[in-house]
Specification:
- This protein is mostly beta strands and about 300 residues long.
- The longest helix is centred in the last third of the chain and has 11 residues.
- It has a single domain, classed as Neuraminidase (6 Propeller), CATH 2.120.10.
- It is globular, with a radius of gyration of 18 Å.
- The protein is about 5% helix and about 45% strand.
- A 5-stranded mixed β-sheet has the order 1-21-20-19-18, with no helix packed on it. A 5-stranded antiparallel β-sheet has the order 2-3-24-23-22, with no helix packed on it.
- The chain has 3 helices and 24 strands.
- Strand 4 and strand 5 form a beta hairpin.
Length: about 300
Amino acid sequence: MIKHTFAVFCAGLLLTACAPEKSSSIALGQTGVVENPALDEISGVRAGIRNPDALFVHNDDGPARVSVIDWQGRDLGSFVIEGGANRDWEDIAAAPSSSGPLLIVADIGDNFAQWDEIILYFVLEPTPGPDGKYGGTVELFHSVSLRYPEGARDCESLAYDPASGKLLFMTKRDRPPRLYGIGLEQALTTQQSELEFIGEAHLFRQPTTEDMAVFGARDGPWVSQPTGMDISPDGTRAAIISYRSLYVFSRAPDEDWAEAFGRKPIEFEGPPSMKEEAVSFTDEGQHIVVTTEGIPAPVYRFDTPVPIP
């Protein structure tokens, strides 16, 4: 695993690292701070497709509400999903449909592995009003209840893979994390279904003594476990965030993600917040956005993609 540490954080900072057969050049900038104090437990982010200046975020409990911020963290309003409920929302993804781009809110958190089913809520990505703000209630496009084949699991990571047409889930409290999937079309045309087990991801760095001292007994054991995931629009890269690091995996044209997650990722240690749980590629795939639980919540942008090795 190639590991890089972000020791200094400022807009325009450029870090370059090289190793045999792999190289990366990535610029990191903090673009802003989330100004809405109600967004104190952001656990998912998705960059807009219809509106690239919008970042759709949500807390992991409370109302069935998706909030919207811009890259500077300014409040652009929010909307409520009609018929939705927020038991433990942990990620938000985007996928295409014949009706337009969909946002997919994932009610998939389950710290104690007690829920028989998890739920995905699909809504058409809304557009802002004349004042540039979002508001009101958004009609539910579809929802689906899903089961794991072996029983309940805790999961905080959902992504749409355009190469396979699947929605992918990576669990948090399994060691190693387990990857599950379901076809987007199947998810959109059924009310209940079972996920398919795809494989395991063995190459996340395990907690160190220093990690336990910094993160404490509650979060230290989980610093390397996935808390958010997204896949680039071209299907070649996956970004996975954990409390400690951003991992970027690359997929060769002849591979599936089960194989790609078996190859060592590039690890960027940081940004320096304590509970990163939200990561997204932008629609053109040239940037990655990361934000975090807690107040104040910084917004980070990683500017340069990591090439396929």
